[in-house]
């Protein structure tokens, strides 16, 4: 009898820990990404948006497929925001390991926003999804928000 209660308690704690970790990760499938900004995360007066866009870099080549990022700061003070987004492919995830190389940091002034477009003025806010000019068997399946912080 006592063993059954312990097993139930352990199963209950495990299910709570598992469900909280599932909700802590923000995933968006490739089909849900469009040319319109989509809210990925909102935190302490700042919002993180993403969109998918084909950007023509060289007129003689096919456009490249990018994930573009926008951070909106609704606070009265500038924020130092950092984010990390992993690209999910059928053969694994690129950028899902938490490390300095894949973490992007931008300063966003008070009550303003900073974003990337195909001019790449804020190129640190873009991630290359696919270059159709090079052969690659990887199929893009979506994105995963690894981290979003404000300092």
CATH topology: Immunoglobulin-like
Helical content (DSSP H or I, runs of 4+): 10-25%
| Total number of domains | 1
CATH-level-2 architecture? Sandwich
Tell me the Rg in angstroms. 19 Å
Main sheet attributes: strand count, strand direction, barrel closure: 5 strands, antiparallel
Strand segment count: 10
Task: Describe it.
- The protein is α+β, with helices and mostly antiparallel strands.
- The protein has a single domain (27-150), classed as Immunoglobulin-like, CATH 2.60.40.
- It has one helix at residues 2-24; strands at 26-29, 38-43, 46-55, 64-73, 79-89, 92-94, 104-108, 112-115, 126-130, 140-150.
- The longest helix is centred in the first third of the chain and has 23 residues, at 2-24.
How is this structure best summarized?
The protein is an alpha+beta fold and 151 residues long.
Which keywords apply here?
151 residues; Immunoglobulin-like; 1 helix; alpha+beta
Topology:
Layout: H1 2-24, E1 26-29, E2 38-43, E3 46-55, E4 64-73, E5 79-89, E6 92-94, E7 104-108, E8 112-115, E9 126-130, E10 140-150
Antiparallel strand pairs: 1-10, 2-3, 3-4, 4-8, 4-9, 5-6, 5-7, 5-10
């Amino acid at each position: 009898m006592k063993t059954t209660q312990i097993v139930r308690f352990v199963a209950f704690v495990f299910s709570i820990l598992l469900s909280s970790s599932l909700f802590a990760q923000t995933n968006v499938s490739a089909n849900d990404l469009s040319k319109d900004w989509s809210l990925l995360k909102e935190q302490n007066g700042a919002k993180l948006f993403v969109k998918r866009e084909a950007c023509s870099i060289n007129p003689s080549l096919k456009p490249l497929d990018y994930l573009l990022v926008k951070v909106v700061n609704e606070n009265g003070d500038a924020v130092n925001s950092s984010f990390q987004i992993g690209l999910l492919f059928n053969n694994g995830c690129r950028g899902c390991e938490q490390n300095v190389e894949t973490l992007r940091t931008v300063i966003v002034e008070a009550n303003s926003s900073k974003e990337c477009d195909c001019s790449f003025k804020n190129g640190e806010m873009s991630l290359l999804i696919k270059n159709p000019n090079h052969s690659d068997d990887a199929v893009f399946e979506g994105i995963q928000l690894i981290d979003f912080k404000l300092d």
